[in-house]
Amino acid sequence: MEKKTNKSIEPVKKKIDFKGLFDKSWVYIIGLALITTVLFGSFLFNGDKMLFGSDTIGGLDAKVFYKNSLDVYHQFPLWFSPRLSGMPTIDAMFGDAFYPPSFMFFSILPVHRALGMRLVFHVFLAGLFFFLLLRKGFKTSPFVAFIGAVFYMLNPEFVSHVYPGHDGKMFVIAWLPFVVWMLKSLLEKPKLLTATFLALGIAICLYTSHVQMTYFVLWGLFIYWLLFVILKYLKDKKFSSIVPASAYFWGAVLGGLGLALIQLLPSFLFIKDAFSVRGAERGFDYAASWSLHWPEAISLWVPEFANTLNNYWGENPFKLNSEYAGAMITLFAVVAVFQKARPWRIFWASICGLSLLFSLGAHTPVFHIAYYIVPGVKKFRACSMIMFWFSFGAAILSSLFFKDLFSGEFFNFSEKRKKKWKKGIYIALAAITAAALLFSLQGFVTALLQPICQSLSDSQKSRIFEGNFTKNFVPFLWLWWFFAVSSLLLLLGVMSGKVNKYVFGAAVLVIGLIDTMRVDAQFIQVVNPTPYFYSEQTLVDLKNEMTNGPFRCFSLPGALTQSGEGIHGVEGVGGFHDNELRWYRQFRGDQQDRNYFDNLIGTMADGKQYLVPENLKNGNAFLNIANAKYYLIRQGEQLLSIKNEGALGRISFTPGYIVMDSSRIVDALHSGAYDIRKTVALMKEPDQKPFGTGSPVSLDKPLSVRWEKYTPNLRRAAVSVQQDGFLRISEVYYPGWEIRVDSKPVKVYQSDLSWMAINISKGDHVVEMLPHSLYLKKAEMVSFPLMLLFGLYWLFEGIKRARKRKKQ
Questions:
Q1: Residue 727 burial class via C-beta count within 10 angstroms: exposed 0-12, middle 13-18, buried 19 and up
Q2: 739 is in which domain, residue-wise?
Q3: C or N terminus of the chain, fewer CB within 10 Å?
Q4: What are 524-547's pLDDT values in tens digits?
Q5: In 3-state terms, what secondary structure has residue 110?
Q6: At what angle do helices 167-188 and 388-406 cross, to 10 degrees?
Q7: What angle do helix axes 327-339 and 501-520 make, rounded to 10 degrees?
Q8: d(CA 76, CA 65)
Q9: Nearest by Cα to 574 from 555, 558, 557
């Protein structure tokens, strides 16, 4: 007989292995997200606020225009009309419009939120990629990877770019760990898949639109590859051993350039073909401008020395960011090199050193040498941008130190080596203390810097230095001393077996968080977006009037923020852009708009200038040709619009023409050498000459214009012309414009230096204006097939790996 049991089956209770959680990568990735949330909490939890960014505020019109083009017209804009009377977008580089994360955020969020959310996302992305680089590329434990990722994502050289609104720089810095991870993996184990990912990383960096930062990234990748092939060849003594990795590397670089050619080629050729004001080289002083100076170099040690927003006294005109990498990153990077002076650690230390020396510009020979022998250096300025390599290299070195420590290397030291290390730490403590004591003495610092720091000769900056020294620098110098001494003493405790290595890691992590976040905090400021986006009634009325026909406004100083017209749906003649069309800058009278003020400004006996109100009514030749129909003037809190009765329409008629060299046109407009209402100044003889002699005749009847469509990529107007002549079109001349009359393309002439004119015959016509990129189609022939090829390859690899996993 069977024995019956009465035992009930109880469910097995699964215990949570809390200790095992700390071996899971996802736990630390959540930690990175939480730290990012804390850092930007004031922005993330205030849904109606925006992150302040100096350049961001100046470029709000472009972001509003971009989003409006996508949402309302469902098209990528090829002509940017709100600023500088219009300019090409793709050819002149329309910011990060091609960059996928930006497209995503602007598609789903209001502009004021999308601007900040992109930066928050990329701070987290920087931490995530650095974590993966350490875990997968350097084979560290999750905890070590977390420490390195936190130090990298919070280092002020990166986060401080929030305040100046240098979003492109932040995007490149965030992607750098991914690119280096792919490069390291590719060289160590050459594979086509890894090469395509490296190509993707390079392309993504180019899509951020920050070509100079990506150029510096490519410098670092090239030097990394060069050292790898040298070491590989010396080890194997075979040329063939370096061929596969080198072929994949250069293939990836070319592939990345090809994928991003639609972003890179148009702007490159736009400058090369001398359309942009940036086309000409401006000499060594320009290239060396906005470099680091000695005060900023010392601020890499203690940022409060000179590199704070409110107490900057260095030699640049102003400073809105910091190059400080962090006390813990820098300290343990040095320790890592002393611990193992091996080739790759020397490489990363050299990257740090070269970045610093190059960023000091004219102060060291490194930049002088690079200026004359390295292609491209002459075209850029702000060499201090390269300092992102300093913080990256230091973060790698410090992470390698932690990797060694947590792998138990410090516990296996012989007694002799332990004594040597203890002695070294005591010497370091003494040196740190001596340096803190010496630099606490203002007289010592002044005597040290006086011969090499010109700003101390400036009375105003000297006063800032003196006030800042005692109030900010000295207290934070001793805070740095406390951090450094505490960390080294804890390290001594680890070596002596008195401090657990995890306690040491946690303590250093907390110190690093306090150190970097205190600096980061001053560069993260949340503001109310209303003052930037609120449209006063005057602007609402002008926007409504724009629906009847386009016109431009001339904002007098103080009326709006820089380039503010486009935020409110109107168009302006002023503003700033790095790639401004050179003939338009000549037409308006450089960046000060001198020609637009012609006849509007009077001078008193004491030399002071004043606005002449009675001259506003009829404007001047420059404003009138530019279709500046209204002046915007602020009186107290009220914004006023004053009509310019003399302004020509966006399309106007002239019966006659003259041919004039471009160098004479500005003077001719100043002096009234030709009547702009009856004559258009062409740069060359037209193919059709309606009035053989080219002399103007009287205009009997005005031109009739009815606007049918006005979108970013198409302007259409029905015109009625009473006699043969020319239509002057007040859109800035660019060879990319296509103009059709009654659906047939016509020849476009550059007129009045900066504008366009076409022949027109008597009668009723439909005029269409379509902007095009001069170079995009050429780039598309490379980029789009490559995108398709890469996509198909990744899809094939994904299916193959999925099937393999299924079989297993």
A1: buried
A2: 651-771
A3: N
A4: 999 999 999 999 999 999 999 999
A5: coil
A6: 50
A7: 140
A8: 10
A9: 555
Crossing angle between the packed helical segments 25-39 and 501-520, to the nearest 10 degrees? 30
On whether both 693 and 738 belong to a single domain, the answer is yes
Q: Is residue 7 part of a domain?
A: no
Quote the CA–CA distance of 470 and 467 in Å, as a whole number. Answer: 6
- The pair of structure tokens assigned to 538 is 């005057």
The single-letter code of the amino acid at 573 is V
Same structural domain, 674 and 721: yes
Report the alpha-carbon distance of residue 314 to residue 296 in Å, rounded: 7
> What is the number of domains present in the chain?
2
Among the candidates 618, 643, 668, a domain finishes at: 643
Are 164 and 212 a contacting pair, CB within 8 Å?
A: no
Which residue carries 């789903």 as its tokens?
A: 108
Tokens of 109: 């969020």
Rounded to 5 degrees, φ, ψ at 720 are -125, 120
| Six-digit token string for 544 | 């409504």
Separation CA 1–CA 36 (nearest Å):
68
Shared domain check, 627 and 580: yes
* Residue 65 near residue 82 (C-beta atoms within 8 A): yes
3-state SS class at 614: helix
> In this structure, what CATH number is given to the domain that contains residue 739?
2.60.420
Quickly list H helices, 365-500.
365-373, 388-406, 415-439, 442-449, 459-468, 474-495
What are the φ/ψ torsions at residue 619 (nearest 5 degrees)? 60, -145
What backbone torsions phi and psi does residue 598 show, to the nearest 5 degrees? -55, 125
Query: Which of 643, 663, 678 is the endpoint of a domain?
Result: 643
Whether 488 shows a pLDDT value over 90: the answer reads: yes
**Residue 791 clears pLDDT 70, i.e. is over it:** yes
Do residues 541 and 574 make contact, with C-beta atoms less than 8 angstroms apart?
no
H helices present in 558-661, as ranges:
582-588, 621-625
Q: Are residues 661 and 752 in the same domain?
A: yes
664-693 residue pLDDT tens: 999 999 999 999 999 999 999 998 877 544
Q: What is the CA radius of gyration of the chain?
A: 31
Instruction: Give the pLDDT band (50/70/90) at residue 792.
Output: very high
Tokens 């990175």 -> residue: 32
Closest CA to 110 of 529, 683, 485, 663: 529
Within a 10 A sphere around the Cβ of 183, how many other Cβ atoms? 26
Residue 293 and residue 359: Cα distance in Å, rounded? 9
Q: What's the pLDDT band for 141 if we cut at 50, 70, 90?
A: very high
645 and 617 in contact (C-beta within 8 Å)?
A: yes
Per-residue tokens: 737:
């414009």
Handedness of CA 681, 683, 685, 687 (dihedral sign): negative
Q: What backbone phi and psi angles, to 5 degrees, belong to 642?
A: -120, 130
Cα–Cα distance for residue pair 67/75, rounded to 1 Å: 10
Whole-angstrom distance, CA of residue 228 vs CA of residue 319: 37
DSSP codes joined into one string, 411-450: GG--HHHHHHHHHHHHHHHHHHHHHHHHHT-HHHHHHHHT
Does residue 162 fall inside a structural domain?
no
The model's pTM:
0.93
666 & 758 share domain: yes
